[in-house]
Every structure is written in structure tokens, then in C-alpha cells.
Write a structure and sequence with these properties.
- The protein has 131 residues and is of the alpha+beta class.
- The protein has a single domain, classed as Immunoglobulin-like.
- Helices cover 17% and strands 43% of the residues.
- It has 2 helices and 9 strands, in the order H-H-E-E-E-E-E-E-E-E-E.
- Strands 1, 4, 7, 8 and 9 form a 5-stranded mixed beta sheet that branches. A 4-stranded antiparallel beta sheet has the order 3-2-5-6, with no helix packed on it.
- A hairpin with a 5-residue loop joins strand 2 and strand 3.
- The chain is elongated, with a radius of gyration of 19 Å.
Length: 131
């Protein structure tokens, strides 16, 4: 019981420091994009920030996934966010679409407040739409 009380007391004194008026006044710290999967299948894709190398990720069926760029001190911009995915779902075919996606400035790294896009299946094809 003592450990739980100590942990709760520590959280009560630490967490408010994250939300001081000064911290909130500093504004948005991230460029954030959110990918929503409106299909019944997992979607694999590649993404990159600016000239970085591509990284592979999966967004599970019916779920969302966010990507963020932490702004350097004093900056309010992020490099281009590029996504690439196979849009042809027919067996044995692979055709890729590449998009540069807009990001929203946000204080937090979550889908709340992020620029949202949704994957939608249309017959044998996959498309990404602004939400």
C-alpha cells in the first residue's frame, strides 16, 4: 500500500508540470498525420519524412496510426511526409501510389488534432482519402 501511495503522490506532483501555463504557451511541438484504416484488412505501407529513408509500418483493420515530427526549438515546420502503398489488391499484382500528405501542428503526438486520412477499399483497389 505504501508503494501505491508513494507512486500516486509522485504522479500528482510530476504530471501537472507537463501542463503549466508556460508549457502550454509554447504552442505546438509536432507535425502530426493520422492514418485511419476503414477496411477489414491490415494495410502495409512505407513512409518517410523529407529525404529520410522509407520505413515500413502496418495499420490494423479498423484502427488508426499516427506519425509525428518533433519541431526543433523555435521551428514550426516539418519536412514532407510521403507515404507509399500497394493499391492493387488483386493476387499477383503490385502497383504503388505515393502521396505527400499535409500535417497539422499539434501539442501532442496523437490522432486527436492531427490531419486525418482514411484508407478505403473500393472493389479490388485501395485508396487514401482526406478525412
Amino acid at each position: 500500500m505504501k508503494l501505491l501511495t508513494t507512486t500516486i503522490a509522485a504522479l500528482c506532483t510530476t504530471v501537472p508540470l507537463l501542463f503549466t501555463p508556460q508549457a502550454l504557451a509554447n504552442g505546438n511541438h509536432f507535425g502530426v498525420v493520422c492514418l485511419q484504416n476503414k477496411t477489414n484488412m491490415d494495410i502495409r505501407y512505407k513512409f518517410k519524412w523529407g529525404s529520410d529513408s522509407y520505413a515500413s509500418r502496418t495499420v490494423r483493420a479498423g484502427k488508426s496510426r499516427w506519425h509525428s515530427w518533433r519541431y526543433p526549438n523555435g521551428s514550426k515546420s516539418s519536412p514532407n511526409f510521403t507515404i507509399s502503398f500497394d493499391y492493387d489488391l488483386r493476387p499477383g499484382r503490385a502497383s504503388y501510389k505515393n502521396y505527400s500528405l499535409k500535417r497539422y501542428q499539434n501539442r501532442f503526438e496523437t490522432c486527436d488534432g492531427a490531419k486525418k486520412y482514411k484508407f478505403v477499399k473500393q472493389g479490388s483497389f485501395l485508396e487514401l482519402y482526406r478525412n
